[in-house]
Q: What sequence folds into this?
């Protein structure tokens, strides 16, 4: 056990920190999240990260990655959080599309997409959820019917981040009305510029439109764009979700660290009473719990190459911590908690964060589904009904 | 011992509920993005709601706070975006004895609010320390100078009851002028405003020196009113959760069959029912002028605001993604619940006030509160 | 709405309060609960209450009751709590056996038992739960087989309060192995002095033995002791449980009021900090919430004669309040929280209460079952699986 | 960055676990009603556990706190009722430099504890205000006079490390005499005692004036040790809950299929896993003498004690009636979790300490803690 950086890690961290100091544009610092402001600048910043060699740190070198140990990726996310820099805009490409294509893609698919994902030339979105198929993903209805050398896609997807700026979509479709729902699904890589694709932003309770609906009307997707086999979409999708949760912990810790830091600054500024002080300390402790749980997971990942169940635990814990923390911030703002300008932190920062946090226990696997997963797969409890 | 509304009060409730469902439903409020439609105020006045506690001679119904309580709860259920809370809970008590103003309120011709907080001065009604707005008398005429923040419904209020300091101490004046600046709030149905007074003409409502006492009474009424509103908000959020849990299917079944869903809905329901008991208790204390009114109102508001917020959060979670969208009405309930929660202090602030009443008193007084906090026994003693 | 006593209620309260002042033996005051100390004195105290006319206040006069409104029973429980007097020892007889016999009993059963329940000449216990049938009551296995004019009972019951001093038992048995579990149950009134009845105390985590196991070996129960019809035991049992929960609210409020009063005294004595003060206030507020919810229920009961769903709500709320409150008391005791003598309140009062409180969410309907009941019967949610 | 125990440490853990399962299982502890069997101490000594951090010259293994951490956690899992915590966490650091005592501890010949709290004086190791026990020197000989309360494992301790005041300030002495009175505790596996000293002969361990510093180090070690114990206790409670939820049937199914049960078990598990992360972090900080050790230990103990208590409570609830009986082992875990929780302050007390470290410092220092609380980056700075 050694919680300090190895010389190699220390060197990597030092270089990165210096690079961020020199290269992070001031207007990107302290980006509050949400879709609105980041898009224009996001691709340029992502490209800059790519050119400096900081994108795809753990990807194999043959696909344009750095082939570095996972600890470098952890350090990268920590340092990004510390400097309040935004992440690469292609989070779905990097975290989900890329690993899934590496696992299941043809050589053509790999060479078409992987390098462009890293360089932010291709932004990806995910087309899994549907209005009637949320937690129960396997009941999805978007149809893909083979017509010559293409699948013709009709249906509707929802809760799709980045769809309004995405170049490609990871689309899960039904190609067979098999009663065994998990079979009969096919995974397609869809060009978002295809005719018949329409994206409508879904306004959230924050007032911003971070997610989208995507409507597919007779969209033709070349057969070559099937990822994996026709009918094997469920298995491919599980790879995507495994990667979604497997690499999540550090990004969540980084996000929570930023929030805790701002919370502490707020508490100091407002000279809060003993009761609130104690609750601020609790949030800091919960952050450490998340951080060191991730380190345990990272150590296991580096030893075994397989992500442990900690991804689900981290998501559960982070979402509840972030919800509690942002409510605490509003309580510190006290009678000013309702003010969207002037009274709070700049432009309703905490109000935005607090409202946004309610989505944390819903998106990327509801807390209910995650608890089912931990109960069944980690604790071995009988399958919940 | 009778802890039920009278038949007349229940009739008022059912009339209110059906009127609001038809004319001012939650869905309709959402369609207008929670903005106030001035015409709606006259409708309320025609139903007699603006004059419930105004005497019959002054054009009101001559009823009391229990009838207003019914209205507060029902308006909370549909998030009525007009200045009813500001006019009836915050301003009306200060107008007592001013027949002309009372008549205009009862007739629906005048809306009102209360301006007390200041940027560098007091933030709560319970506090007048550092109050800097000044009242000056020139013959019979008064003028006020100062700046007030966090004024609820300032944009839709006709007259503003303003706290200020003069040689004789803190008093209350009414002002129609001054510069008003709207402030954007999370809950758009009840925005705040900033009021700047630079020698604005004012009418004296409450004598200098009596302001603190008037504020204390207003505060107790306001806390009780907000507790009742919170019950309405929480009940509406629960109703949406029950409806969704019963109809939404996943994995081939209504999601309400899953205990992770149904038990959460139950906890939301239980919380609001307990809050309802406290809110009705507080309402009765206010209506009766009971000496426990201040503690009861603080306790009820602390509990009910938390219950309403929790009910909204549970409801959003039960709804999943759709409950997180702007188009769904839930976020509006949630934002109002949070407005209520922040007004005059979050629950810990109010609970500390209750703690003082329990712990910083003699053995005998504390025994009074603990054992006899139920007014049931007062006639025995 | 009028929260003050009516003149009649005020008079009743005044007399009762004076009576308690004159008649409550000092050694019974501030009885901490638990089985150990109360038994010897309990019957005498109960008899005294009976002789003064305070037992069976709401029972019909024809069965020895006072035929008084429910508000008198509420006042009785409030005043008992205020003076820290113990309840009548026959709580199961009064709250469950009596009402069930009134509803389903023969004239012979009524005259044999009702008056003796009131006078504490007969103490009752309940024989419902079994080791394999807890929440799932209908799966019980204790058999009763007709042999001539008697049922022969064999089986085991558990979690039976007062069984070690009880004269009679409300016994739910299986007389038919009908696959529809609810049918085939028969409700018997069993003399605990019958041959073949053995009671073994079950020691709890407090160290005391408040509950018991009861073993029935070839116990002969006269056929005349069937309550209701043979095979209709489930319905009769539901009457018992309805009364268990229907009249519970005021007893729970009374118990919580005693606890809150002691908590406040402790907090004052220990001059606790702001954070603890606020939490003490919270418990007082939760007590008021329980109290006024009961008043709402009482008003409805007096208007309609039917207990509302508030019984389940009160039980849920009380159990969690009492658990939180007793933990708070130990936190106020701080470094002395572990001391069973000397350091805490007399003889480990709070430690006993805190440990005992863990049973509150299990006994008389687990919180999980109560939430199911509220979900299905009050909110109309689809039946939980 | 390597947040795993070494292979040697893991071997120690698996040996400990199988030894304890065989010889000192939770069930066996329960059969003896949690009483200490003095013979068991020699077994621990033979395994080398009493001398883990004693140098090889003094008969120990010359290892560090990470190895002791493994033992603390494993002993927590089985509620070992002997004075391991008292000897190794509370007393051993004060014996540093006293070779003869260290040798006896390593050899299993000497158990020990620490007596600090006083009825009218300090109650926590963090506090020496009002410390009234007096140390008097007569030539080379010392005697102590005073009364100590809340002395853990006093009944089974050979020597007692006692804090006292002399002209030079607070120091630490060892005492074998004095009158010892047992005190009944909720957790019978770790009883307290009262120690009365009336001129008892004593040996100086830590110079007067250096007592506070020594206590601070002992305290940090002790908090980390209790966090580790709490993880063991919580894990044992969770294991029982999982086992019961998987095997107990109601309504024709294992109760673990019901989310009211399974999600509660999950929350218990998640709580203990998070606590484990904090406890290992604190252990590493103690082992390394890291400057964050005090804050890490306070944070870990606060969190882990609450997690263990919650895990026990969830487990009792999942077990239903049987979990509430004396014969079931659960209540013993619960009582130990509560013992840990109360020692040196419940979580809010410790969190206030953490709050001071975060909020009562300069911008720079706070940034250190917030951003760089991860020691990962220290070699960069």
A:
């Amino acid at each position: 056990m050694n919680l300090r950086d190895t010389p190699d890690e220390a060197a990597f961290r030092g270089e990165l920190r210096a690079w961020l100091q020199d290269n992070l544009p001031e207007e990107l610092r302290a980006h509050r999240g949400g879709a609105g402001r980041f898009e224009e600048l996001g691709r340029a910043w992502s490209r800059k990260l790519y050119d400096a060699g900081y994108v795809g740190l753990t990807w194999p070198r043959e696909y344009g990655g750095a082939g570095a140990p996972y600890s470098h990726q952890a350090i990268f996310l920590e340092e990004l959080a510390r400097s309040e820099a935004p992440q690469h805009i292609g989070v779905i490409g990097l975290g989900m599309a890329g690993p899934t294509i590496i696992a299941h893609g043809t050589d053509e698919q790999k060479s078409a997409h992987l390098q462009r994902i890293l360089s932010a030339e291709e932004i990806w979105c995910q087309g899994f959820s549907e209005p009637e198929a949320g937690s129960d993903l396997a009941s999805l209805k978007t149809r893909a019917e083979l017509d010559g050398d293409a699948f013709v896609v009709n249906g509707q997807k929802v809760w799709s981040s980045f769809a309004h700026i995405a170049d490609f979509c990871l689309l899960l479709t039904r190609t067979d009305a098999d009663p065994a729902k998990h079979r009969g699904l096919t995974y397609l890589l869809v060009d978002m510029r295809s005719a018949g694709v329409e994206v409508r932003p879904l306004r959230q309770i924050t007032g911003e439109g971070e997610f989208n609906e995507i409507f597919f009307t007779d969209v033709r997707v070349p057969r070559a764009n099937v990822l994996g086999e026709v009918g094997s979409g469920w298995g491919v999708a599980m790879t995507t979700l495994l990667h979604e949760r497997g690499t999540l912990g550090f990004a969540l810790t980084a996000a929570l660290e930023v929030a805790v830091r701002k919370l502490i600054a707020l508490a100091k500024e407002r000279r809060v009473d003993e009761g609130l002080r104690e609750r601020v300390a609790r949030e800091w402790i919960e952050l450490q719990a998340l951080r060191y749980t991730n380190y345990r997971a990272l150590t296991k990942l580096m030893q075994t190459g397989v992500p442990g169940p900690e991804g689900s635990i981290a998501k559960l814990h982070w979402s509840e911590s972030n919800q509690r923390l942002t409510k605490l911030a509003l309580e510190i703002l006290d009678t000013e908690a309702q003010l969207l300008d002037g009274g709070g932190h700049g432009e309703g920062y905490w109000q935005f964060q607090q409202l946004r946090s309610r989505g944390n226990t819903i998106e990327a696997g509801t807390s209910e589904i995650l608890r089912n997963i931990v109960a069944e797969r980690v604790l071995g409890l009988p399958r919940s009904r | 011992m009778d802890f039920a509304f009278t038949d007349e009060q229940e009739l008022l409730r059912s009339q209110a509920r059906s009127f609001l469902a038809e004319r001012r439903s939650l869905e309709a409020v959402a369609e207008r993005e929670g903005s106030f439609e001035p015409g709606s105020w006259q409708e309320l006045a025609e139903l007699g709601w603006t004059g419930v506690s105004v005497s019959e001679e002054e054009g009101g119904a001559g009823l009391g706070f229990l009838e207003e309580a019914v209205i507060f709860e029902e308006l909370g259920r549909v998030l009525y975006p007009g200045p009813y809370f500001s006019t009836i809970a915050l301003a009306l008590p200060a107008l007592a004895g001013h027949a002309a103003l009372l008549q205009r309120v009862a007739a629906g011709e005048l809306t009102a609010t209360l301006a007390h907080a200041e940027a560098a001065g007091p933030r709560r009604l319970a506090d007048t320390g550092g109050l800097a707005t000044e009242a000056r008398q020139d013959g019979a005429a008064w003028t006020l100078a100062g700046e007030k923040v966090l004024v609820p419904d300032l944009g839709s209020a006709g007259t503003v009851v303003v706290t200020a300091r003069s040689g004789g101490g803190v008093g209350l004046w009414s002002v129609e002028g001054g510069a008003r600046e709207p402030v954007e709030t999370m809950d758009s149905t009840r925005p705040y405003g900033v009021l700047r007074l630079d020698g604005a003409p004012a009418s004296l409502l409450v004598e200098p020196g009596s302001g603190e006492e008037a504020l204390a009474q207003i505060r107790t009424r306001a806390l009780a009113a907000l507790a009742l509103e919170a019950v309405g908000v929480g009940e509406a959020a629960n109703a949406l959760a029950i409806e969704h849990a019963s109809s939404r299917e996943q994995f081939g079944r209504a999601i309400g069959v899953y205990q992770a869903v149904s038990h959460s809905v139950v906890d939301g329901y239980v919380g609001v029912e307990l809050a309802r008991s406290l809110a009705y208790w507080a309402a009765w204390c206010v209506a009766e002028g009971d000496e426990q009114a201040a503690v009861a109102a603080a306790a009820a508001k602390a509990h009910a605001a938390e219950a309403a917020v929790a009910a909204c959060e549970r409801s959003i979670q039960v709804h999943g993604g759709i409950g997180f969208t702007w188009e769904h009405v839930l976020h509006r309930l949630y934002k109002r619940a949070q407005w209520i929660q922040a007004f005059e202090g979050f629950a810990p602030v109010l609970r500390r006030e209750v703690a003082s009443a329990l712990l910083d008193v003699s053995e005998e007084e504390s025994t009074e509160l603990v054992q006899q906090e139920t007014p049931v026994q007062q006639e025995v003693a």
